[in-house]
Amino acid sequence: MPEPLLEVKDLTVSFPNASGDVRAVRGVDYSVAEGEFLGIVGESGSGKSVSSLAVMGLLPSSARITGDITFRGQSLLGMGDKQLSRLRGREMAMIFQDPLSALTPVYTVGQQIEEALTLHNRGISGDLAHKRAVELLKIVGIPAAERRVKAFPHEFSGGMRQRAMIAIAMANDPSLIIADEPTTALDVTIQAQILEVLQKAKEVTGASVVLITHDLGVVAGNVDRVAVMYAGKLVETGPVDEIFSAPRMPYTMGLLRSVPNMLTAGSSRLVPLEGRPPNLAKLPQGCPFAARCPAAQDRCREAEPELLVTDGTGRQVACHRADEIAAGTLRAVDIFPRPPFHEREVLEDRVTEPVVSAKGLVKHFPLYKGAVFRRAVGTVKAVDGVDFEVLPGQTLGLVGESGSGKSTTSLELMELTAPQAGSLHVAGHDVSKLSKADRLAMRKDVQIVFQDPMAAVDPRLPVGDIVAEPLTVHKVPRAERQRKVAEMLELVGLDPEMADRYPHEFSGGQRQRIGIARALITEPKVLVLDEPVSALDVSVQAGVVNLLEDLRDKLGLSYLFVAHDLAIVREIADTIAVMYLGRIVEYGPVAEVYASPRHPYTRALMSAVPVPDPEVERTRRRIILAGDQPSPAEDIAGCNFASRCPLISLLPEGKQQRCRGEDPVPVLHGGSRVACHHVDSISRLDTVDAASQSSVTSA
Amino acid sequence: MSMTPTPPTDQAVDLPTDLEPTASLAEEAGVGAGSAAQKAYRPVSRGRLVWRRLRRKPNFWIGAVILALIILFALFGDLLNIYELGEQDPYSFNAKPSGQHFFGTDAIGVDLYASMTEALRKSLLIGFLAAPLATVLAAFIGSLAGYLGGFVETATNWVINLLLVLPVFYVLMIISPLLSSMSWVILVVAIGLFGWMIMAQIVKNQTKSLKEREYVKAARYMGVGTLTILRRHIIPNVASLLIIDATLGVASAILAETSLSYFGLGIQAPDVSLGTLLQDGTSAAVSRPWLFLIPAGFLVTLLTAVALIGDGLRDAIDPTSEVNRA
User: Fold this and answer.
1) Can you tell me the ipTM of this complex?
2) Residue A441: closest CA among chain B residues belongs to which residue?
3) Domains (range + CATH), chain B
């Protein structure tokens, strides 16, 4: 076996703290071979980022590090910062999660790439460095690289900044690239672009890549080998196919079963992985996962299992019961049984009045310029004529990239005032004709759950007061409020005794439940869910989604579910509306839209969502959209989507003209409304070779 | 002369961060994991929670005890004394502190102990009335302007800027005939009216960012009224700021009164305050140090006590500030 490029041996990292040392990494061993693509997966707080920062020597000085890290046989831990700096950037490069703070705002992107070049190669001339910078930007697929090289980071979109980061990382042909959550802050279509660029960077430089992520889907499609981290330790490593097809550690199983899969969602329920990772300052005795593990035995609570090689394929598992699992006597379906799937009563035979109905809803924001004499210089068309209906007891999923206007649409509904144009009916009433008192009464029927569980509840109020707040508006007496609060907390799976605690004592998932309890306390008819699970860890997501489904079916609620995660929407929604630049481009029943998306944007969006199954990922055809969403302030003649449409280049010239000159109106095709001139030609996207669609080559 | 010191900006509204719940906090809230199981559901009001936390702060107790002693001294200290306020002892001019004159006497034989109790009463009253008045004005005007925005905000900005550019001292000099003809109450109002502007600006800006928080939006979508939102969500979230302001405000109100009295614009001749005493003692600081050191010592102790109380209150009202600093 050749010597590995990077070898980490018994690495521990702890941060001294008044209430006990936080042991972020507790004895991690792994190695990366030349040219290997390793994925490190774990929930937030599992120590995955800390362990890679230790490799780069970028941990704060307060961190205590023991163990050994060798890179090409050289020990990194003994090196001073100066020696390490010589390696960093030239031999090892890092790509960070937040591309905005990783680039210096006062230098141009080109200068920053050139800096990386000249720093490690003093001999290189300025001219040559500049040429190389342009070349690198071209490789990572930045259009008009000659011009863009002179741009400042704020002139780049998030995806372009991340490309620039990759260009910097590639600059000196490193032999190791560490990418720490490189796509977490990005939209799914941009994520697909970036992952492709990362693969390309790997091919061009021949480097090994360590990809750190919480997203199992991202891992499935890209890496060769997976290492799963939990509470500062590796709990399972092995080739990607085997980990996904036959996980041997219950944590891996639970994680895999809790991830919504876009291809199978909707037909079965998600499996929640209860509990949360242990506090790293006060680890319990035994296996750190024991408290959340349904298969835990007494020995699991007594001694922590070692990471042991189980068979010849190089798989390592840290579990006392790994043998039973490998032998097939302890199966994942038994450890994490799927909750029973409830057949839902769908009120289709009865004629039902929609609870919410919007027609031609518009929300434009004027753009002002000038400090003294403010004048309107344009309009941001956040929502630009949107029709939708929410039926009683059903869920409408509103999906789209950030900036598509989906949140604005949902907030327009919450305002309960006359829209700028179009009409909005809630529970049969035209909201523009409501009196002040009627509107206040109607607020009972329409409630909202926000995205960020940290910001959605007032940190200065005890939970009981937070949940009771909507009732104070409607003058409910105190005793009645307390009774309802206890009832609601019970309903969302929280202990009513927690009512006098403050929000910061709760985890993210629990806080989201508090938000749901607050929304439900007035017994609303419609619940607007604005990205309710996107800020949560995967294992927690499943529990909240299941809760929402149960509540809907038990209480007969209707949901307007705003999300960017197509897998979750398929799981929970009955109808889906795909938004792009303030318009709904496709609207129809979930089953139909997912089975045969008719709008090229829907197709691209769906193909960009990674599926947590390596086999499927390898065979899937991916449509990668070029560039970014145009600004909603732009005036676009013709179709909004024409600038990024993958279909348009496959059409004959005459048909292309129509897209550029004529704005498509939504037309009924089958069961769904599609805003595209060329629905009949959509199948052309299937026959074309996926590679030719790549933004990298087309740029 | 600005009477409201600018609080350090990093104190401004401790933003909630994702904190692991610590055992001590759970325990502090009175629902430790063990006891919670047996206890019946009994909500604890916010006021009681704050008091429970406050109770555990040694700093708060030190401050509170000192302040209580000073107040007791101001109210009942003269019971121990045989001299009346302003009474002269013709046999002891410039006497050092002794059993006869606890705090000594000045050049014309006036007993300092008697003056001291009266001066403390007046200064405490002025400080504790003027500072909260300024803070309440700042909280109300600032949060309303920040929350409503638009014309209300613009108009508030005009008023604030106008008051800030007015030379406060000059204005007080002009209206000083009015001040001296009326009681000291008008002085309290004057100090309060000229002390709220900077704090109001800070509260206004904080409110503008708090307004965008999801829980404020949620409250708005529930139909909660503007004043209730301000009272329930905005003001408590700037409370730590307001408490610091009110505390430091007591100090600066007393100092403001001192300077005004020095120029004869504040407390008038027969009346005494800590300010007039200090002023009288300044010239004697070297030759007869007790005349200066005793009032100065009282002033410093008083201000320290108030600051300690403010500190403890902030920790108790804002449950995250304590954890943040740990």
Assistant:
1) 0.75
2) B223
3) 58-325 (1.10.3720.10)
